[in-house]
Amino acid sequence: MQKSYTLSVHTGATFELDESSLQQLDAVATGHHSFHVLKNNRSYTAEIIAADFVAKKYTIKVNNNTYEVSIADELDQLISRMGIERGRHKVVNAIKAPMPGLILEINVQVGDAVQENDPLLILEAMKMENSFLSPREGKIKSIAVVKGQAVDKGQLLIEFES
Known about the structure:
By secondary structure, the protein is mostly beta strands.
């Protein structure tokens, strides 16, 4: 099975590539981060200016034009189709109930400074206790529930200061 990739350019252009199309690309390294590329009988000079391998984002200069490019492999594409965000750079400002349940314990108060992974509260749902840990460092802005309260799915539980 061939691997496939989606390349997204900051200009809005999107390209779908697979292993065979990459093998057909005539590219020769001319330096550590620079290449000479022939595509459809046209010559291109390409240079990788910056690379964030974890985020799969690159700044590339092609014939003196600079482009921001993101590369998504098959797993990234599946995650996107499922509507799941990686959340690596996203700031969480609110904790909402993922399911209906009962608040068993609240471990913080308004104004508390919390660190990532500090315990915030415990929600009982389907006879299981679910501990909610802080997704980030921050200050508690509001607590929308009290101990013993029944909550619905999607209900606001805790809000962080921005």
